[in-house]
Amino acid sequence: MQRIGFVGTGLMGRQMARRLMMAGFALQVWNRTKERAGELLSAGAQWCESPAACARAADVVITMVTDSNASEEVICGRDGVLAGAHPGLILIDMASIAPEMSRTLAAAARTREVPMLDAPVTGNPKVAADGKLGIMVGGPKETFDACLPLFQAMGAKIIHVGENGKGTTLKLINNLILGVAIEAVAEALVLAGKAGIDPVKVLEITSVGGARTGAMETRGARMIAHDFSPHFSANNMYKDLSQVMQLAGEAGAFVPATGIALEMLRAVKNQGRGELDSCSVMTIIEAMANAAVKTDG
Fold first, then answer.
1. pLDDT confidence tier of residue 1, bands split at 50, 70 and 90
2. Are 236 and 96 spatial neighbours (Cβ–Cβ below 8 Å)?
3. Phi, psi of 47 (to 5 degrees)
4. What are the structural domain ranges in the chain?
5. Which residues, other chains included, contact 111 with Cβ-Cβ below 8 Å and sequence gap of 6+?
6. Catalytic: 294?
7. Pairing mode, if any, of strands 26-30 and 46-47?
8. Among 125, 81, 88, which residue's Cα sits nearest to residue 105?
9. What CATH number matches the domain at 169-289, 3.30.110.70, 1.10.10.10, 1.10.1040.10, 3.30.429.10?
10. Mean per-residue pLDDT for 211-217?
11. Count of CB atoms within 10 A of residue 296's CB?
12. Is the CB of residue 99 less than 8 Å from the CB of residue 168?
């Protein structure tokens, strides 16, 4: 299992593919825009003209694209991965997609005798570059075991959750926490400013104690600086929290805080700023409070 096909070399995929090359795996790559694969091609990866061509040249194909529709297209489309299926091929979809789509894609793969894992990740491009992603995997345990060296090249925390669809389900639950935490950070920073406290002090005190959160640690300083360059866009977070709401309805669970976070993300999208980082929800809180977060430093 040395020949890896990698489909989708965007901000995250490019770093994940690079980690596989660093681990010694031979890489075949495809991306909708070839220029985005330039860095990998310069490092020795081979270009394929389609996802199907990647599959024909690989033992394992990893797909890392934007959403459910994109995953379905690159896997099941006319020139998709399954069009290039061959005996022994394994498919790993690492996109953040709806659990029902993961199950549908896995069923389609089984008709071609291709085992599939859904393995979404948590972490940003820098975390991916350092090989420290969290990876949540659903699918056959024997396939997971066979692919573990690939996951170890890309991640620091790798969890097999259960059957197909469970990896993407856990990713939604993870992003529920992140989305609500970002909303809480935004509210705290705006409230601090309105109460006459430098928001940097909030950042400092929440670095210890029970209020410590990854959302504050990774985004707090950027929010204070109004740096909303995308790590995980408002569009993507909105997509995931919308799927959380659907999952909760199906499971009979209640997620009221998620609903609030979703509506704030909707406001960002309605203002045409969905490509900004999800922490841009702070601008909505600022507008509601007629205030701007700023530091005295």
1. low
2. yes
3. -85, 140
4. 3-162, 169-289
5. none
6. no
7. parallel
8. 81
9. 1.10.1040.10
10. 94
11. 8
12. yes
CA distance 52 to 75: 8
At residue 167, φ and ψ (nearest 5 deg) are: -65, -45
Among residues 186, 275, 187, the alpha carbon closest in space to that of 239 is found at: 275
Distances (CA, A) of 50 to 30, 32, 73, 279: 6, 9, 11, 35
Q: What confidence category does residue 2 fall into, taking pLDDT thresholds of 50, 70 and 90?
A: confident
Q: What's the chain's average pLDDT?
A: 96
Q: Taking the model in full, what pTM does it have?
A: 0.92
Q: What is the mean pLDDT of residues 62-85?
A: 96
CA angle 49, 54, 57 (to 5 degrees): 115
Of 137, 136, 76, give the one whose Cα is nearest residue 109: 76
Give the span between the Cα atoms of 91 and 120, in whole angstroms: 13
Domain 3-162 CATH superfamily:
NAD(P)-binding Rossmann-like Domain (3.40.50.720)
**Dihedral angle computed from the Cα positions of residues 269, 233, 199 and 257, in that order, rounded to the nearest 10 degrees:** 70
Q: Exposed, middle or buried, 272 (CB in 10 Å: 0-12/13-18/19+)?
A: exposed
Beta strands 26-30 and 3-7, pairing class: parallel
- pLDDT value at position 296? 85
Q: How far apart are CA 71 and CA 7, in angstroms?
A: 10
DSSP state of 279: G
Neighbour tally for 33: CB within 10 Å: 9
Which among 34, 132, 171, 201 is annotated as catalytic? 171
Q: Which amino acid is at 51?
A: P
Q: What pLDDT score was predicted for residue 297?
A: 72
Tokens of 162: 């259960």
Give the mean model confidence (pLDDT) for residues 91-110: 96
Query: Are 38 and 171 spatial neighbours (Cβ–Cβ below 8 Å)?
Result: no
The secondary structure of 53-86, three-state, reads HHHHCCCEEEECCCCHHHHHHHHHCCCCHHHHCC
